[in-house]
TrEMBL record, chain A:
Native species: Lachnellula hyalina
Stretches assigned to the Amidase domain: 35-519
Subunit structure: Subunit of the heterotrimeric GatCAB amidotransferase (AdT) complex, composed of A, B and C subunits.
Function: Allows the formation of correctly charged Gln-tRNA(Gln) through the transamidation of misacylated Glu-tRNA(Gln) in the mitochondria. The reaction takes place in the presence of glutamine and ATP through an activated gamma-phospho-Glu-tRNA(Gln).
PANTHER family from the UniProt entry: GLUTAMYL-TRNA(GLN) AMIDOTRANSFERASE SUBUNIT A, MITOCHONDRIAL, TRANSAMIDASE
Family recorded in the similarity comment: Belongs to the amidase family. GatA subfamily.
Domain of life: Eukaryota
Protein name: Glutamyl-tRNA(Gln) amidotransferase subunit A, mitochondrial
InterPro entries: Amidase, Amidase_CS, Amidase_dom, AS_sf, GatA
Assigned GO CC terms: glutamyl-tRNA(Gln) amidotransferase complex; mitochondrion
TrEMBL record, chain B:
Gene Ontology terms for molecular function: ATP binding; glutaminyl-tRNA synthase (glutamine-hydrolyzing) activity; transferase activity
Subunit structure: Subunit of the heterotrimeric GatCAB amidotransferase (AdT) complex, composed of A, B and C subunits.
Protein's organism: Lachnellula hyalina
Record-linked HAMAP family: GatB
Top-level taxon in the UniProt lineage: Eukaryota
Protein known as: Glutamyl-tRNA(Gln) amidotransferase subunit B, mitochondrial
A Gene Ontology term for the protein's cellular component: mitochondrion
Length: 548, 601
């Protein structure tokens, strides 16, 4: 039984003297970090234990011992683990730059709720990870502080983005857990490319207070770790209502959502294994696209076979609006981004151009021109255009409608009702022709959807450099629909065979809104199945021929 | 409809946490009767802003009367009038008023007016990266009161949108406002002749209100020499309402009257802070003209079709500026069109004291605000119970108050207007106190009778009092609670003595002036005692003696000849002769008739 840790209640008592933390800023190997707290390392590489922290050079890096009542409650299974946090999440000790020139020296005066929650569990935050500027990118190349890279010999492969620094920090075992943000796949994609687990929760379950927004209606705080178990524990410790975040799901709604059928999946134990074979797993036919890499398709098949072997039912499903999801996503995300980024003018914080504010006749054009990178500027322009009075009807409004259709697609295929919406009657006559009907009652419904995280494994950075900017957006085609609908999704890494580069595929499990626990649980099972399968060599022997 | 004083409301609505400031401030002592029935505005704590909020109604009335007289005589025949016969002016107004709330619209920072700069600023107010808005639902209360007072339909669901433009006083680069779904729509306001509307608009005119929206204020810029601008973020994020009227105003003076009336209404329902003149209220006007006889204009604004191309004049901060700017812009547009030119849709500015509007930016320089629903803020759902409650507690609006004074208290409209507008409503409170006391002293007296009596003394007799030594604006020192140098109970007593013929009218005026100069130290009764002013009725013998002394045989003969009316002349003579005002005309008539009859023989 998992005891839910109560983070915020403990946090005030454990708050460290944050300003005293010594930290280093760049450069770090592979540009993984933008800033790092100086922690005293024990010989075994683990973080210095609490007693010695007083004498440590970089003192006050860990929390003071918690007061008795809380330490008594503290779950024994949650040891102090070093954590890295993406640099668009505010910390009061380390700078928060969003990997942007305009915030290159920005020291946040407050701390994000998720950071407070992490600290209250005793986890030291050892650094702020590099990323695409303001989360805008899929390869962690758009950073003011340089591209995040894998260690050689894979240093020319994309680490994915935008939470690339977080993914590499976990993959390289610099930390056990890293926090990222996922707007359209920014946690899942780097997790898939870097071979770690990346989880994006349902929208509104984890507080965004202190998370510098890219697109508020899509942004979620995600978790990267080397195992689903760690993802699960971290998720449990951060999943609570935050009154400071107006989009945080209320306590009442959580109660309703978590007791509507999926609650039994809240425990990560084998008790539930007996229900596993009852799972109906959906395979969206629209995801079987031309651009899908051959071996990624094989990995997908392998995953489905593993589920099938355990008795799960594999069901083809149709999500007819998938094609429109990607362009609609980019319109919405850029529109919101253009709006959110208008606050960076160098007046109150951030860098400011030496030349006059009004130079070139437009206020702040110099400061913003110098501070933002190219991709950010591109998205501000596109977003501003999508919102302009001439274009809003054809772009922004249409994209909102597509978003609603994408949500309806998911609500139609999931057997669990969406707790945020009234049940909807789907009229068969209005249904897209591509939707297969199970019987005269309508299309079949499923518990979860399994699909690749990305159509290809990690691409080469040199190829990316030669792409048009819009080509890079295709990487998000499988991750964006879940973001548009606010659904929980997790990416589980599959080692590719043969193990020449690139080495990983990501397999994504998507669930209905608030079905987060089951999504992590099934990912955890998949993780175990893959381990057994890899060890036994069954996969190679039995299935390879049938696939080829 | 019982009127609950806003102060009482406040005390249970928010645990008494709403600041007593601006139009909410009032001193703690109030008569229970007034708490029940009505309340009015109170003085401001800040001396610099106090005079500006009161509208000089008396002056307005006088000016209004004067103007109408002048126009009535048709002396204002100028060449412009010829023009105005050919052209019709159309004006729509947007009024921004700062809501009277304890906190900002989207943060829990306190709303203050003149505090040390940058001392009430939350993270969200300065758009600190990662901070999020927290809608303060208490701000809805004054906003809803304003909307209800302006007869709007409250929208059950409203939403917040971002309006993008960059300026240093706008930290986020956008203002959060309600563009697509405002919280109140389809209201109207009725303006009467006494509000100062143009003669052409007749006795009353209804102006439609398209919508009222909530939005954020900007930071205050304090400009220093050397092109340095200091920013005070205390003001940023304060809640405003923007009231948008339909383009249904056709005369500059009606526009000014409309702004003035909205301010009076907002004050009376405790919705706003400060007045137009002191910056708590700002107005933008849209002006267009079209030929009366020509074809209809091509433009449609707020659903009103056939209008001429309009221009917008921004940031008008006084009633006079509203009126003058409209006149100047009207004349400019007519001039341009007469000369064969075209009106450009542009934004123009106005400087006080100027005679012309000036171009600020044209259409090509017009900002595209790129309105977008705020993705952090959910819809605002307003329950019917809240609307009902606020509707019931809204109380009596100024127009209704005047109707009560006219219909129930027997005052003239003019007197009623003066009463509610003087001393920020204090005179009205005082009046009600006097009437209440009179009703206590003479329970059988008709309310209209008591009202007229009290009205005469409170307005006209007391209005004539002045301090010889010091030239004071308000010699009575009337507070908005209806407290002044002459206690209301003493005045009521005096009026009662007069009404029951215990003293004469002449004596009463003498006593009033004594009450004023003695400054609360003596009671009415003492003063009458001291001066021996108690009225002792004349005996019949005294009447006869008095009558004989003035009898004029000529008149007597005329009366005997049948001209009965002449007897009044003699009564008047008697009253004049007596000098102390003790002669009762009826008794005098009886005595006189008797004497004259004696002559008949």
């Amino acid at each position: 039984m998992v005891e839910v840790h109560l983070p915020r209640s403990a946090v005030r008592a454990t708050k460290v003297a944050l300003k005293e933390v010594n930290y280093r800023i760049r450069p770090f190997a592979q540009n993984v970090f933008i800033s790092r707290a100086e922690l005293k390392q024990e010989q075994d590489g683990s973080v210095a234990d609490r007693q010695s922290s007083g004498e440590a050079v970089g003192k006050a890096k860990e929390p003071e011992p918690e007061p008795e009542p809380y330490s008594a409650q503290k779950p024994p299974w949650f040891p102090v683990r070093p954590v890295a946090v993406k640099d668009n999440i505010a910390t009061a000790d380390l700078p928060t730059t969003c990997a942007s020139g305009i915030l290159k020296n920005h020291q946040s005066p407050f701390e994000a709720s998720v950071v407070e929650q992490l600290r209250s569990t005793g986890a030291p935050i050892i650094g702020k990870t590099n990323m695409d500027e303001f989360g805008m990118g899929s390869h962690s190349t758009n950073s003011f502080f340089g591209t995040v890279t894998n260690p050689p010999p894979f240093d020319r492969l994309s680490v994915g983005g935008s939470s690339g620094g977080s993914a590499v920090a976990v993959a390289q075992k610099l930390v056990d857990i890293a926090i990222g943000t996922d707007t359209g796949g920014s946690v899942r994609l780097p997790a898939a490319y870097s071979g770690v687990v990346g989880f994006k929760p349902s929208y509104g379950l984890i507080s965004r207070w202190g998370v510098v927004p890219y697109a508020n209606s899509l942004d979620t705080v995600g978790i990267l770790a080397r195992s689903c178990k760690q993802v699960f524990k971290t998720f449990v410790s951060m999943q609570e209502h935050d009154p400071k975040d107006p989009t945080s799901l209320s306590e009442k709604s959580r109660m309703r959502a978590f007791t509507s059928g999926s609650n039994r999946w809240r425990e990560l134990s084998d008790q539930n294994f007996k229900d596993f074979h009852k799972l109906r797993i959906g395979v969206p036919e629209q995801y079987n696209i031309f651009e899908l890499d051959g071996r990624t398709r094989q990995s997908w098949q392998r995953t489905l076979m593993l589920f099938q072997d355990l008795g799960c039912t594999i069901v083809p499903i149709s999500l007819p609006n998938t094609q429109q999801a990607l362009p609609a996503y980019y319109i919405l995300a850029m529109a919101e981004a253009a709006s959110n980024l208008s606050k960076y003018d160098g007046v109150r914080y951030g860098t400011r151009s030496q030349s006059s504010d009004g130079a070139g006749d437009v206020l702040y054009s110099e400061s913003r021109g110098e501070g933002f990178g190219d991709e950010v500027k591109r998205r501000i322009l596109l977003g501003s255009y999508a919102l302009s009075s001439d274009a809003i009807d054809n772009y922004f409004i249409k994209a909102q409608k597509v978003r609603r259709l994408v949500q309806q697609d998911f609500d139609r295929v999931f057997s669990m009702p969406n707790p945020l919406r009234d049940p909807e009657q789907f009229d068969l006559s209005e249904m897209d022709e591509s939707i297969l009907l199970n019987n005269k009652l309508g299309p079949s419904q499923v518990d979860l959807i399994v699909c690749p995280t990305s159509p290809t494994p990690a691409p080469n950075l040199d190829d990316i450099a030669n792409q048009r900017p819009v080509d890079a957006y295709i990487n998000d085609v499988f991750t964006v629909p879940a973001s548009m609908a606010g659904l929980p999704a997790i990416s589980v890494p599959l080692k590719r065979r043969p193990t020449d580069s690139p080495r990983f595929d990501g397999m994504q499990i998507i669930g209905q809104y608030s079905d987060d626990y089951r999504v992590i649980f099934v990912a955890h099972e998949l993780e175990k199945l893959l381990k057994i399968d890899n060890a036994s060599g069954q996969w190679r022997k039995e299935n390879r021929e049938s696939l080829n | 409809m019982a009127r609950i004083a806003p102060r009482v409301l406040r005390s249970y609505l928010f645990g008494g946490q709403v600041p007593a400031r601006g139009c909410l401030r009032r001193s703690p002592v109030r008569s229970p009767a007034l708490q029940r029935y009505h309340g009015t505005q109170a003085p401001l704590a800040e001396t610099n802003s106090a005079p500006s909020i009161s509208i000089p109604f008396r002056k307005q009335l006088k000016d209004e009367a004067k103007r109408r007289k002048v126009e009535g005589f048709g002396k204002k025949a100028k060449k412009d009038n010829q023009k105005l016969e050919d052209w019709e002016l159309t004006v729509g107004i947007e009024i921004h008023a700062q809501l009277n709330t304890a906190r900002k619209l989207f943060s829990s920072a306190a709303s203050t007016i003149n505090d040390v700069p940058n001392t009430h600023v939350a993270l969200f107010d300065v758009a600190m990266p990662g901070s999020q808005p927290a809608f303060q639902k208490e701000t809805l209360i004054p906003a809803l009161r304003a909307a209800l007072a302006l007869n709007c339909t409250i929208q059950k669901t409203s939403k917040f949108d971002r309006k993008h433009y960059m300026h240093w006083d706008q930290p986020s680069g956008y203002q959060i406002t309600q563009y697509y779904e405002p919280f109140a729509k389809d209201g109207h306001i009725t303006l009467y002749a006494h509000d100062g509307i143009a003669k052409e608009d007749g006795d009353r005119i209804d102006i439609g209100i398209k919508q009222i929206q909530m939005e954020q204020d900007t930071a205050k810029t304090i400009s220093q020499p050397g092109d340095i601008h200091l920013l005070d973020f205390n003001r940023v994020g304060l809640p405003l309402i923007e009231i948008i009227t339909l383009p249904q105003i056709h005369h500059p003076s009606t526009a000014a009257a409309m702004v003035r009336k909205i301010q009076i209404i907002l004050n009376s329902v405790d919705a706003c802070v400060l007045g137009l003149q002191s910056g708590g209220l700002r107005a933008d006007v849209n002006v267009s003209v079209r030929r009366r006889d020509g074809e209809e204009g091509e433009n449609e604004y707020s659903g009103v079709k056939g209008l001429g191309k309009r221009t917008e004049i921004k940031n008008l901060s006084s009633f006079k500026a509203v009126e003058d700017a409209i006149i100047a812009e009207r004349d400019r547009q007519i001039g341009v069109l007469d000369a064969g030119g075209k009106i450009e849709g542009e934004t123009r500015g106005w400087t006080i004291g100027s005679t012309e509007t000036r171009r600020l930016r044209g259409k090509e320089g017009e900002v595209d605000y790129r309105y977008m629903p705020d993705p952090d803020l959910g819809p605002v759902i307003i329950g019917q119970d809240l609307i009902d409650h606020l509707h019931e507690s809204l109380g009596v609006l100024p127009d209704h108050e005047i109707n009560i004074l006219v219909d129930d208290y027997g005052l003239t409209t003019k007197d009623a207007m003066s009463l509610v507008s003087l001393n920020e409503g204090g005179r009205h409170e005082y009046f009600r106190n006097v009437v209440d006391e009179l009703q206590r002293l003479a329970p059988k007296q008709d309310l209209k009778e008591a009202g007229r009596l009290a009205g005469n003394w409170v307005l006209h007799e007391m209005g004539g009092l002045s301090n010889v030594e010091v030239d004071e604006e308000d010699p009575l020192r009337m507070t908005s609670d209806g407290d002044c140098i002459i206690p209301s109970t003493e005045l009521a007593q005096l009026v009662h003595y007069l009404d029951t013929s215990k003293i004469t009218g002449k004596s009463a005026k003498k006593v009033l002036s004594e009450l004023f100069s003695s400054g609360r130290s003596k009671s009415t009764k003492d003063l009458i005692d001291e001066a021996g002013l108690w009225f002792t009725p004349l005996s019949v013998a005294e009447y006869e003696e008095l009558a004989r002394s003035i009898l004029d045989m000529k008149v007597v003969e005329q009366i005997l000849a049948g001209k009965d009316g002449k007897i009044n002349f003699l009564v008047g003579q008697m009253m004049r002769k007596d000098g102390d005002g003790r002669v009762d005309p009826q008794k005098a008539t009886v005595v006189l008739k008797k004497l004259i009859e004696e002559f008949r023989e």
